[in-house]
């Protein structure tokens, strides 16, 4: 089944980052191996106004075109709504897309988003015609506020960026999914291994966005394939209907009318 992002359908539920790879060629191979059609890229690490980084941006665009996919610029590194809005507008001019992954960081230690600045930037960008994909914590109230502002897509973290700790608070994530049934929920940040991604999909999340777990693997290409398969397994498990946990054991083979053998002593 396809994933819909602001009315656009993509075939893969894995969104992938373009940073931290050993080389541009390995990045390309990993993206192709993952099957991902949405690739994120950061503008903050270069100077968009001076077109710094244009060569690598062009290379990423070529890879995305090969996948018949889409670029998702992000505002990583921004610490205020004003800074994030300015960078988003630059990205729209450079990449000709209204999509923006909105990040407004409030803490330098764990890179936790600033909820107040995030809501402010979201409101401004939505009013300016952007399709905002906000990165936030696993806070139900914050996710609800973002949805009420008009975000069709919300991206709560599994754990802090780059930690690889996986889903540190499954209860919060499950609650967000339950309370926002109509929202497209993409788990973003903190995924460490394919089983983490599979678990998110089993919960009913619509997609997973990750970078470090693939880029920093011994073999990014092999790991990209592993994540692609994990997401497929998790999605199919959710669609198939996972059995409820039980407090007591139940035999898989009924005992009623089942013959059994009695060994005589004679």
Provide a brief overview of the structure.
The chain is an alpha/beta fold. It has helices at residues 24-34, 54-66, 81-95, 115-127, 140-149, 170-179, 194-202, 212-215, 220-240; strands at 3-5, 8-10, 14-17, 38-42, 70-74, 99-102, 131-136, 153-156, 184-188, 207-210.
CATH class: Alpha Beta
Largest sheet: 8 strands, parallel
Structural class: alpha/beta
CATH architecture: Alpha-Beta Barrel
Number of helices: 9
CATH topology group: TIM Barrel
Order of helices and strands: EEEHEHEHEHEHEHEHEHH
Radius of gyration: 21 Å
User: Which geometry do the CA atoms define?
Assistant: globular
Count of individual beta strands: 10
CATH homologous superfamily annotation = Aldolase class I
Instruction: Give the CA-CA distance, first to last residue.
Output: 64 Å
The pLDDT mean sits at 88
Strand content: 15-25%
* Helix fraction bin: 25-40%
Strand order of the largest sheet: 5-4-3-10-9-8-7-6
Main traits of this protein?
single chain; 266 residues; alpha/beta; TIM Barrel; 8-stranded parallel β-sheet; 10 strands; 16% strand; globular
Could you give the topology of this structure?
Layout: E1 3-5, E2 8-10, E3 14-17, H1 24-34, E4 38-42, H2 54-66, E5 70-74, H3 81-95, E6 99-102, H4 115-127, E7 131-136, H5 140-149, E8 153-156, H6 170-179, E9 184-188, H7 194-202, E10 207-210, H8 212-215, H9 220-240
Parallel strand pairs: 3-4, 3-10, 4-5, 6-7, 7-8, 8-9, 9-10
Antiparallel strand pairs: 1-2
Helix pairs in contact: 1-2, 1-9, 3-4, 4-5, 7-9
């Amino acid at each position: 089944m396809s994933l819909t992002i602001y009315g656009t359908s993509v075939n893969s539920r894995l969104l992938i980052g373009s940073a931290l790879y050993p080389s541009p060629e390995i990045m390309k191979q990993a993206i192709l191996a993952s099957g991902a059609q949405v690739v994120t890229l950061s503008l903050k690490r270069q100077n968009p106004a001076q077109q710094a980084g244009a060569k690598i941006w062009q290379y990423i665009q070529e890879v995305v075109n090969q996948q018949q996919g889409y670029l998702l610029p992000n505002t990583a590194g921004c610490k205020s709504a004003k800074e994030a809005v300015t960078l988003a507008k630059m990205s729209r001019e450079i990449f000709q897309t209204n999509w923006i992954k909105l990040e407004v960081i409030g803490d330098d230690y764990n890179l936790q988003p600033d909820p107040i600045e995030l809501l402010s930037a979201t409101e401004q960008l939505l009013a300016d015609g952007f399709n905002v994909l906000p990165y936030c914590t696993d806070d139900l109230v914050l996710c609800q506020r973002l949805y009420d502002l008009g975000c069709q897509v919300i991206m709560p973290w599994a754990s802090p960026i780059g930690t690889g700790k996986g889903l540190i608070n499954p209860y919060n994530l499950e609650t967000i999914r339950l309370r926002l049934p109509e929202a497209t929920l993409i788990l973003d940040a903190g995924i460490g291994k394919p089983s983490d991604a599979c678990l998110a999909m089993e919960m009913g999340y619509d997609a997973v966005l990750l970078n470090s777990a693939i880029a920093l693997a011994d073999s990014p290409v092999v790991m990209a394939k592993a994540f692609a398969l994990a997401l497929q397994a998790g999605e199919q498990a959710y669609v198939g209907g996972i059995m409820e946990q039980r407090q007591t054991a139940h035999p898989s083979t009924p005992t009623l009318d089942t013959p059994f053998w009695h060994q005589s002593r004679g």
